[in-house]
Specification:
The longest helix is centred in the first third of the chain and has 15 residues. Helix content is 16%, strand content 34%. It starts with a helix and ends with a strand. By secondary structure, the protein is of the alpha/beta class.
Protein backbone atom coordinates (compact mmCIF):
# COMPACT_ATOMS: atom_id res chain seq x y z
CA UNK A 1 0.00 0.00 0.00
CA UNK A 2 2.80 2.40 0.87
CA UNK A 3 4.45 1.72 -2.52
CA UNK A 4 1.26 2.53 -4.44
CA UNK A 5 0.80 5.86 -2.67
CA UNK A 6 4.47 6.79 -3.14
CA UNK A 7 4.29 5.85 -6.82
CA UNK A 8 1.19 7.99 -7.30
CA UNK A 9 2.82 10.96 -5.57
CA UNK A 10 6.00 10.63 -7.69
CA UNK A 11 3.96 10.32 -10.89
CA UNK A 12 1.87 13.36 -10.01
CA UNK A 13 5.00 15.38 -9.22
CA UNK A 14 6.66 14.40 -12.49
CA UNK A 15 3.60 15.03 -14.63
CA UNK A 16 2.47 18.14 -12.80
CA UNK A 17 5.50 20.17 -13.88
CA UNK A 18 4.73 20.10 -17.59
CA UNK A 19 1.65 21.69 -19.11
CA UNK A 20 1.25 21.82 -22.87
CA UNK A 21 -1.43 24.08 -24.29
CA UNK A 22 -2.36 23.45 -27.90
CA UNK A 23 -3.97 26.79 -28.57
CA UNK A 24 -3.90 26.32 -32.32
CA UNK A 25 -6.03 23.22 -32.52
CA UNK A 26 -7.17 23.43 -36.14
CA UNK A 27 -5.46 26.55 -37.43
CA UNK A 28 -3.13 24.55 -39.69
CA UNK A 29 -5.91 22.79 -41.62
CA UNK A 30 -6.80 25.60 -44.00
CA UNK A 31 -7.08 24.40 -47.58
CA UNK A 32 -6.28 27.28 -49.90
CA UNK A 33 -8.52 25.78 -52.61
CA UNK A 34 -11.60 25.74 -50.38
CA UNK A 35 -13.35 28.69 -48.77
CA UNK A 36 -14.83 26.35 -46.15
CA UNK A 37 -11.71 25.29 -44.27
CA UNK A 38 -9.97 28.24 -42.62
CA UNK A 39 -9.17 27.69 -38.93
CA UNK A 40 -10.93 29.30 -36.02
CA UNK A 41 -10.24 32.71 -34.50
CA UNK A 42 -11.40 34.35 -31.25
CA UNK A 43 -12.99 37.22 -33.15
CA UNK A 44 -12.93 39.22 -36.38
CA UNK A 45 -13.93 42.72 -37.41
CA UNK A 46 -14.12 44.69 -40.64
CA UNK A 47 -14.20 48.45 -40.13
CA UNK A 48 -12.45 51.63 -41.24
CA UNK A 49 -10.97 49.85 -44.28
CA UNK A 50 -9.20 47.38 -41.97
CA UNK A 51 -9.64 43.63 -41.40
CA UNK A 52 -8.82 42.67 -37.80
CA UNK A 53 -8.59 39.22 -36.22
CA UNK A 54 -8.29 38.24 -32.56
CA UNK A 55 -6.22 35.04 -32.52
CA UNK A 56 -4.69 32.62 -30.03
CA UNK A 57 -1.42 33.82 -28.54
CA UNK A 58 1.26 32.28 -26.36
CA UNK A 59 3.25 35.51 -26.17
CA UNK A 60 4.97 35.88 -29.55
CA UNK A 61 2.15 35.83 -32.11
CA UNK A 62 2.13 38.67 -34.63
CA UNK A 63 1.17 39.12 -38.29
CA UNK A 64 4.20 37.16 -39.47
CA UNK A 65 2.57 33.97 -38.13
CA UNK A 66 -0.24 34.17 -40.70
CA UNK A 67 -1.09 34.18 -44.38
CA UNK A 68 -4.22 35.93 -45.57
CA UNK A 69 -6.20 34.75 -48.58
CA UNK A 70 -8.56 37.13 -50.37
CA UNK A 71 -11.31 35.94 -52.73
CA UNK A 72 -13.57 38.16 -54.81
CA UNK A 73 -13.56 41.13 -57.11
CA UNK A 74 -15.16 44.52 -57.73
CA UNK A 75 -16.73 45.40 -54.38
CA UNK A 76 -17.51 41.96 -52.85
CA UNK A 77 -14.67 40.08 -51.09
CA UNK A 78 -14.06 37.20 -48.69
CA UNK A 79 -10.99 37.07 -46.44
CA UNK A 80 -9.55 33.97 -44.75
CA UNK A 81 -6.71 33.83 -42.23
CA UNK A 82 -4.36 30.85 -42.01
CA UNK A 83 -1.78 30.35 -39.27
CA UNK A 84 1.47 29.21 -40.88
CA UNK A 85 3.56 28.63 -37.76
CA UNK A 86 2.93 27.95 -34.11
CA UNK A 87 3.72 30.26 -31.23
CA UNK A 88 5.99 28.28 -28.90
CA UNK A 89 6.43 31.07 -26.36
CA UNK A 90 5.36 30.28 -22.82
CA UNK A 91 3.12 33.24 -21.92
CA UNK A 92 -0.51 32.40 -21.33
CA UNK A 93 -2.60 35.10 -22.97
CA UNK A 94 -6.27 34.14 -22.66
CA UNK A 95 -7.37 37.29 -24.50
CA UNK A 96 -5.28 36.38 -27.54
CA UNK A 97 -3.50 38.80 -29.84
CA UNK A 98 -4.90 41.23 -32.38
CA UNK A 99 -3.57 41.21 -35.94
CA UNK A 100 -4.87 43.41 -38.73
CA UNK A 101 -4.40 44.32 -42.38
CA UNK A 102 -5.59 47.37 -44.26
CA UNK A 103 -7.80 46.99 -47.31
CA UNK A 104 -4.92 48.47 -49.32
CA UNK A 105 -2.53 45.72 -48.12
CA UNK A 106 -5.09 43.09 -49.12
CA UNK A 107 -5.87 44.63 -52.50
CA UNK A 108 -9.44 45.46 -51.49
CA UNK A 109 -10.90 48.82 -52.58
CA UNK A 110 -12.28 51.17 -49.91
CA UNK A 111 -16.01 50.74 -49.40
CA UNK A 112 -16.03 47.11 -50.53
CA UNK A 113 -18.16 44.50 -48.78
CA UNK A 114 -15.92 42.02 -46.90
CA UNK A 115 -16.94 38.71 -45.33
CA UNK A 116 -14.67 36.71 -42.98
CA UNK A 117 -14.22 33.01 -43.85
CA UNK A 118 -12.81 31.89 -40.48
CA UNK A 119 -15.16 30.53 -37.84
CA UNK A 120 -15.22 32.31 -34.50
CA UNK A 121 -14.88 30.30 -31.29
CA UNK A 122 -13.56 30.78 -27.77
Amino acid sequence: MKFQITGAVVAAALLGGCVIIDADDDSFTADWDSKDNFGTVYGADVSDSTVTFNVTDNGCTDRSFFDVRVFGNDDDFEVGLKRTRQDYCKALNPDGAVVSWSFQELGIPDGAKVRILNSVRR
